[in-house]
Design a protein that fits this description.
The complex is a heterodimer of chains A (387) and B (457).
Chain A lengths: L16 E7 L9 E3 L5 H4 L11 E3 L3 E3 L4 H8 L3 E8 L7 H10 L10 H9 L9 E4 L15 E3 L13 H14 L10 H20 L16 H15 L5 E6 L8 H25 L6 E7 L18 E7 L5 E2 L20 E2 H12 L5 H4 L13
Parallel strand pairs in A: 1-8, 1-9, 5-11, 5-12, 6-7, 6-8
Antiparallel strand pairs in A: 2-4, 3-4, 5-10, 9-10
Chain B lengths: L9 H11 L5 H7 L4 H9 L10 H6 L9 H14 L3 H13 L4 H4 L2 H14 L4 H9 L2 H6 L13 H8 L10 H10 L3 E3 L15 E3 L9 E3 L2 E3 L3 H9 L2 H16 L5 H13 L4 H10 L1 H4 L9 H12 L10 H10 L22 H15 L5 H11 L4 E2 L1 H11 L7 H11 L5 E2 L3 H16 L7
Antiparallel strand pairs in B: 1-2, 3-4, 5-6
The chains are: A alpha/beta (387), B mainly alpha (457).
Chain lengths: 387, 457
């Protein structure tokens, strides 16, 4: 474990920004970063193994999935940190429970306090900026939820706003009434859901006013694709570049639950991820906004080592990527061995706890004390960032 | 106006109809209030007393969708049923089970299969839970959703077996990993017919098949019982587990009574479930007639489907097959976080407080305000006509009370009322029938649906 090091905050006058990209459904890490150097790979992946000639080879006998060209390019530039073997003790193979564990950083107990919600709280303890945390896509993830801490969720940036079919005096009147009807000081009674609604309404209104400024101010030569993830990442770039002070961003893509038709499905999904992430960093670089941004790509678990004939079932140990211009590229843990004696009930044995990655980012990148956020002190990785 | 021969308090009728159906305007509630509460419950539960909706005209009038090429149309058709069915509890229960047995077209990718799926939830949803689980296990969309067609005797696939125990019945912690494996073995050979390729002629449904030769006929030990079990034997064992009764009771309490679980009430409901030998309609009869249900008013956050359908009913929208724009209703629930027939995961949606986040709330308010505030909407224009009938002027308080009453006897808290008057700057009496009066009514209706109160049922 490293002692307290300097964080990105102290080395750059622009505050560090953290983007999370969630791959829902349990991404098969074994065919994302493929361990061809393991003699057991093809033995266990008879039907969903990726032919070696197709894959994008990197050092040490590893390769990226053939559809991950853009991420391979970022790797070649030394901007991709790979953490093979991410997991946690007593792995849970249920999608929702495992995702909850990642979102709350709490494998021991059910909780609704999201780790990024706590991060937002600690980044902005006075609640000065309601857009400190912004999620794009289908709703606020539990990770960003913390009672009393604002976090904005945007489905589409264009046209985002309240009571938009009214205009002029009618709209001003309605919005003023809305603002007061959602304000806590107007009501004596208190109730968790009632208060949550009030807080959410006020935050939505304030956030909408701030977010409205982002698209008009944005220009770029990067042409994102039309899929939902690309549009989410474009929205993140627009908001980040507008300078309204968002520190935590969230985007997600689902469909990784490849019990069947794995070859085709994963091809499409990882291509979507790789291209959109490549476009995102191209966009930030073109607009001089990449130095302060890192992205973490995770999934709630990996999949069984042995395929099921057409896909793979829920496993435990997976892997995590950190990408960014100030990330030091490389492998940060040995790839777990696929040998039978090294497996954990048929899965890749995890070699590090996901909370070690969280802690590394929280302390070394965002300059926060990770212990209360991840519910304990975890070993951190060293030298992941160029600070 | 309250009818003189009223037998049931109109507010209580409003509560029952919001929860067991999708809400109604006050004139319909008043008609119902002439009958006893218990008979209203029986009418909701005994769906066979009323005919199914005739959808021929809907299909003929929406010919562009009739071949079910459009995913949005499959959702919109369900929304049309929710708005118009004379058996609303059937649709409501299907909505509840859809969140429990969450199956999605993101993977199934076949509209007729998804339609068959939700019709199965509707057809079996009020019956015996055993029959429902069996229908579920034989449902082609579910089979494909959880890879059951790949569960072979030589190579079991645990996906369905695991979720059947974890998400569809007993819940985690009530069985072992060994039970999951044995359960999966018992369902080997339960598969579906190969779907005909979509091109060139469009989607085709598929059907359940049992392949004897692919079924593992060896003995299995499941939850302490040993035998040469097939899938239906497994379901027989599952339904009699106390954990299953608790699970079903908790789902029903959460969906129909309150977002906050109450263990004592859930215990009561689970006892009725066991005593009735697993008949859901018997359980619902007990729940709707209970005091705890009657007292649970306005304490549940409306789901997006409830909000959209309920608001459409009040605005009188989509009550004929001739009105265009039904698919926009499906898009609206999606933007509020509930893409029907496409739940986020096998676990379904996070409900209650989690229906409210900033983007969902913005969608809820923008949708409801636009729909109810439109004076051309049949329901809105009916509200306008009814509140100003036989009147020349109204006080602001009267106006607001009448609007809230028309919308199904709902309420605003005192501060909300005061704010509304202040911000709309209505302090003196209003002259009915003027254009200004109509604009004020429209603004009042918009602000009612924008309120925090309106988010609750």
């Amino acid at each position: 474990m490293v002692s307290k090091t300097k964080s990105a905050k102290e080395t750059n006058n622009r505050p560090p920004v953290f983007v999370v990209l969630q791959l829902s459904g349990g991404n098969d890490f074994m065919s994302t970063v493929i361990p061809y150097n393991d003699p057991h790979y093809f033995e266990y992946r008879k039907t969903v193994g990726i032919p070696e000639d197709d894959a994008l080879h990197i050092d040490g006998g590893y390769a990226f999935h053939p559809s991950m060209g853009s991420i391979k390019n970022l790797w070649d530039e030394g901007k991709v940190a790979i953490f093979p073997g991410t997991g946690y003790p007593s792995p849970n193979r249920s999608h929702f429970r495992s995702m909850d564990i990642w979102h709350t950083a709490n494998p021991e107990a059910l909780s609704s306090d999201g780790w990024l919600g706590k991060t937002i709280r600690d980044l902005d303890p006075q609640k000065e900026n309601v857009v400190t945390g912004v999620s794009f896509g289908s709703g606020l993830p539990r990770a960003m939820y913390l009672s009393g801490t604002p976090a904005i969720s945007v489905s589409e940036l264009e046209g985002y706003g309240l009571l938009t079919d009214l205009a002029g005096r009618q709209q001003r009147q309605a919005i003023k009434a809305f603002t007061r009807m959602y304000a806590p000081e107007e009501f004596e009674e208190a109730d968790v859901v009632w208060d949550h609604l009030g807080q959410t309404g006020i935050d939505a209104l304030t956030g909408a006013d701030m977010l409205k400024t982002a698209p008009p101010a944005y220009t770029s030569s990067v042409e994102y694709a039309n899929d939902a993830l690309s549009q989410s990442l474009k929205g993140i770039a627009q908001v980040h570049l507008s300078g309204i002070g968002t520190r935590i961003f969230y985007a997600q893509l689902g469909g990784f639950d490849v019990h069947g038709a794995q070859i085709q499905t994963q091809q499409t999904l990882l291509q979507n991820v790789s291209r959109s992430v490549g476009d995102f960093f191209d966009d930030l670089r073109e607009n001089d906004g990449s130095q302060e941004v890192i992205m973490m790509i995770f999934s709630e678990f990996g999949r069984r080592i042995k395929d099921n004939g057409n896909g793979t079932d829920h496993g435990s140990g997976g892997g995590t990527l950190l990408i960014g211009d100030r990330v030091k590229g490389g492998f940060y843990d040995p790839y777990p061995s696929l040998a039978p004696e090294d497996q954990l009930d048929g899965d890749m044995h995890f070699s590090h706890d996901f909370r070690s990655i969280y802690s590394t980012v929280l302390e070394q990148w965002l300059g926060l004390n990770p212990v209360p956020i991840v519910n304990g002190a975890f070993d951190q990785f060293e030298n992941v960032f160029n600070l | 106006m309250v009818l003189l021969n009223q037998k049931t308090d109109v507010e209580l009728v409003g509560h029952l109809i919001r929860r067991a159906a999708f809400g109604e305007p006050v004139d319909l509630l008043e008609q119902k209030s002439t009958r006893s509460y218990e008979t209203l419950v029986e009418d909701l539960i005994n769906v066979d007393k009323f005919p199914r909706l005739n959808e021929d005209l809907l299909e003929r009038h929406n010919i562009q969708h009739a071949d079910e090429e459009s995913r949005q149309w499959t959702r919109a058709r369900w929304i049309y049923r929710m708005i118009n069915s004379e058996r609303p509890l059937e649709e409501k229960v299907a909505l509840m089970w859809h969140d429990v047995f969450a199956t999605g077209d993101s993977k199934v990718g076949n509209n007729p299969m998804m339609r068959t799926h939700y019709e199965m939830l509707r057809d079996y949803g009020l019956g015996n839970f055993r029959d429902l689980l069996l229908a579920l296990a034989k449902d082609p969309a579910m089979i494909y959703w959880l890879d059951q067609q790949m569960n072979h005797s030589e190579a079991p696939n645990e996906n369905f077996g695991r979720e059947l125990l974890e998400l569809f019945s007993m819940g985690i912690g009530n069985y072992t990993e060994e039970d999951v494996k044995e359960c999966a073995r018992a369902f080997t050979g339960w598969t579906k017919s190969q779907t005909i390729p979509r091109y060139p002629n469009g989607f085709y449904d598929s059907e359940f098949i049992f392949r004897e030769e692919d079924h593992d006929n060896g003995p299995k030990t499941f939850l302490g019982e040993t035998g040469n079990f097939n899938g239906d034997d497994i379901i027989d064992i599952i339904v009699k587990q106390p954990a299953t009764a608790q699970f079903v009771a908790a789902q029903i309490y959460d969906f129909f009574v309150s977002d906050n679980p109450d263990e004592a009430r859930i215990d009561e409901i689970s006892r009725v479930f066991i005593e009735s030998e697993y008949v859901i309609s018997d359980v619902l009869r007990f729940v709707f007639n209970s005091d705890f249900f009657k007292e649970s008013r306005f304490n549940k956050v409306k789901s997006p489907a409830e909000l959209v359908v309920g608001t459409a009913i009040l605005a009188g929208r989509h009550q004929t097959p001739y009105e265009y724009g039904l698919t926009k209703m499906a898009t609206a629930t999606k933007n509020m976080g509930q893409d029907l027939l496409n739940p986020p995961t096998v676990e379904g949606w996070h409900t209650g407080r989690e229906w409210i986040d900033s983007s969902y709330l913005v969608e809820r308010i923008n949708f409801s305000s636009k729909m109810i505030g439109d004076l051309e909407a049949p329901g809105t224009s009916k509200i306008l006509a009814r509140i100003s009938a036989d009147r020349l002027t109204m006080t602001p308080d009267e106006l607001l009370d009448e609007c809230l009453s028309e919308m199904g006897k709902i309420h605003l808290k005192a501060p909300s009322r005061a704010i509304l008057f202040e911000e709309l700057n209505v302090t003196s009496d209003l002259t009915c029938g003027t254009e200004e009066f109509e604009q004020v009514v429209s603004q009042v209706l918009r602000l009612i649906v924008s309120s925090r109160e309106y988010q609750f049922a």
